[in-house]
Amino acid sequence: MQTSYKRTSLIIFLFLMLSSMASKEEKINLRVMTFNIRYDSPNDAKEGNGWEVRKPRVAQIIEFYNPAIFGLQEALLHQTKYLDSVLVDYKWYGVGRDDGKEKGEYSPVFYNAKMFDLVSSETMWLSETPGKPSKSWDAALPRILTKVQLKHKASGKVIDFFNTHFDHRGEEARLESARLIKRNILAEGLSKPSVLMGDFNASENSAPYHDLISGQQIFDVHQITQNGSIGPKGTFGGFEVCGKEITNRIDHIFTTKEIEVKWVKVINDSFGEKYPSDHFPVMADIEF
């Protein structure tokens, strides 16, 4: 009788220990980043800010902070291919916004292929005809949402990742884009974690921003970080290191409620008197 009791106690102890280990293993820690790298403009070269000068600096920032997943904005195809060629272990998905193929700016998503398998990928235009290259409302240019669904190899868990770049002129277009994206995320269901990021050309005081976070279903990582935010408040201030406080925060990362946010950092690393882009990258360490 005593032997049977000890055996039962041992089984219960082992079960609880394994359950605890499994519970810990279920937590997945990731670093994600959004980075508007500034498109390759000939005019920038006149001021010493051309892509040929900046491209190793952009790559160095990404390589140093080593995100598992990151989204770019304003990336032309040759800029995307350059980063793909120098960054190790990443694969990417994206299309040109002008024709759905190679023309125009991309909003590509890069992911560490050692950590993730690509389950699905999709591009949606931020317009009234989202299934084809188009623009609507008062948008100056076609704008897109890039979506990838990734499976974490070690755990089998799936995460949805959205990357976008809102119009720089159209107020109505930005608001309608926010509503379109929110409907898309909610339609996918909130049972699996989702990350939305990009250059929204909209501050935390704007209508598009408030539309996205209303309803307590999508959250700004700056608002829910457990250990605080590091770096300047703003994300857009030009190429020059000027010593002035940058407060215009238009690059954002949002998550759904399944995700815990550990840290947030606005990266203002410079190279001499120059930044690698006119936008600062935003990085978040998350857990789900």
What does this structure look like?
The chain has 288 residues and is α+β, with helices and mostly antiparallel strands. The chain contains 7 helices and 13 strands. The strands form 2 sheets. A 7-stranded mixed sheet has the order 3-4-2-1-13-12-10. Strands 5-6-7-8-11-9 form a 6-stranded mixed sheet. Helix 5 links the parallel strand 7 and strand 8. Helix 3 crosses helix 4. The protein is globular and about 50 Å long. The model has no long low-confidence stretch (mean pLDDT 92).
Notable features of this structure?
six-stranded mixed beta sheet, alpha+beta, globular, 288 residues, seven-stranded mixed beta sheet
Briefly, what is this?
The chain has seven helices and 13 strands. The chain has helices spanning 2-25, 42-46, 51-65, 77-86, 171-188, 207-213, 221-224; strands at 29-36, 69-73, 90-93, 109-112, 116-125, 144-152, 158-165, 194-199, 218-220, 229-230, 251-256, 260-266, 282-287. The chain starts with a helix and ends with a strand.
Order of helices and strands: HEHHEHEEEEEHEHEHEEEE
Cα radius of gyration in angstroms: 21 Å
C-alpha end-to-end distance: 44 Å
What class, by secondary structure content? alpha+beta
Number of strands: 13
Which band does the percent of strand residues land in? 25-35%
Number of helices: 7
Average residue-wise pLDDT: 92
Shape: globular
- Give the proportion of residues in helices: 25-40%
Q: Could you give the order of strands across the largest sheet?
A: 3-4-2-1-13-12-10
Uncertain residue ranges? none
Largest sheet: 7 strands, mixed
